[in-house]
Amino acid sequence: MEEVFGDAEFGAFPGESFRFSVKRVEGVGYIRLEHKASKRCWTCEMTDVGAHALEGATLPPNTVLQYVATSLRDSTKQGIHLTRGEGDTVLQLEVLVKSDVANMTWAPIYVFPLTLEPQKAMSPTEQIKMLTTQVQELQQEVKTLKEQMKSVLAPAKNQQSPVQVATLPSPGFTIRRRPKDPPTQVPPVRGNANTPPTPSNANHTLEKIAEFKYREKKDSPGTLMRRHRRHICKVCSALRDHRRTFQTSHYCVACTERRGGLMVFLCNKVRPHDEGEYQNATCNQIWHTMWGNGERMPKTGVSSIRMRKKLKTSEQSKTALL
User: Fold this and answer.
1) Using an 8 Å Cβ cutoff, are 287 and 294 in contact?
2) Which of the pair, 279 or 116, is modelled with greater confidence?
3) Is residue 42 within 8 Å of residue 116, measured between CB atoms?
4) What does the pLDDT average to over 41-55?
5) How far apart are CA 219 and CA 222, in angstroms?
6) Which residue, 33, 140, 237, 314, shows the most beta carbons closer than 10 Å to its own?
7) Is the pLDDT of residue 299 over 90?
8) Does residue 275 contact residue 229 with C-beta atoms inside 8 Å?
9) Contact, 62 vs 1, CB < 8 A?
């Protein structure tokens, strides 16, 4: 008889499950039960299967063992019982074997005592394998419980009545959005009757400072470091809001010449100004395009902006401040 194995549960062992195997090799029958959680095993080895029949039945051994395997697969049905002996060292398996002989139904009872196998010391590899198997079994049980929970909650969810949304009565008037305020017009600040007309922006280009090329400094190892001197940007100074202004080493040549040598330092990049109209424009674009080469500069911060002339060649060691 080929080996038959599977899972079984018994009413006398609630919440516990077993693995079983039934086989017959070279005239010797084997019934083995393994507890899934504790991994303890009980075995019944028999050479004479008929000796386990209470009524002296003489059914073929393979027929009896095949019926035992089938009953273990359907262990929840009547006809098979597992009882516990003292100290769990012996389990007794009772199986009702039904057979039709000469138009007669015969149902002898077979009793198989299963003895607890001594547990052997397991190697680390065997222990890891056993623990891995236990974890997989627990994961499968959790998955089964989740599916059962879904099947139970689905009908209850469908029976819930939809929530009725209360409708508010009409107030009797129409609520309209408040119109947005028109953009603030920047009033002209500079310019008088003697001010010459604003030149075109095409000739306004930025250049780096030529009079004071570098600021020299030695670092801790004694290496001489040079970098361009930097000055406060006019636009950043006008739009600052109690914060530190940005510095640059670029200036507008045309605006400087038009103001008689008063340096007009401008950033050639976008700065984080708060006003929305200035967010995507460089300081150079704000000064020339939006402020008309500085003639329409807003009032805010103008009092703190000073125009200073270029230092002469003899004064190259001094710093030009805005």
Assistant:
1) yes
2) 116
3) yes
4) 89
5) 5
6) 33
7) no
8) no
9) yes
Which of 14-23, 169-178, 206-215 bottoms out in mean pLDDT, i.e. has the lowest? Answer: 169-178
* Structure-model confidence comparison of residues 92 and 59, the more confident one: 92
Phi-psi bin for 87: left (phi > 0), alpha (psi -120 to 50), beta?
Answer: left
CB atoms within 10 A of CB 80: 22
CA dist 177 and 8 (Å) reads 73
From the number of C-beta atoms within 10 Å of its C-beta (0-12, 13-18, 19+), residue 126 rates as exposed
> Which is more confidently placed, 203 or 186?
203
Helix (H, G, I), strand (E, B) or coil at 113: strand
Under a CB-based contact definition with an 8 Å cutoff, are residues 283 and 271 in contact?
A: yes
Q: Give me the pLDDT at residue 31, please.
A: 94
Output the pTM of the full model.
Answer: 0.40
The answer to whether residues 112 and 91 touch, using CB atoms and an 8 Å cutoff, is: no
**185 within 8 A of 269, measured Cβ to Cβ:** no
- 45: its two tokens: 């080895």
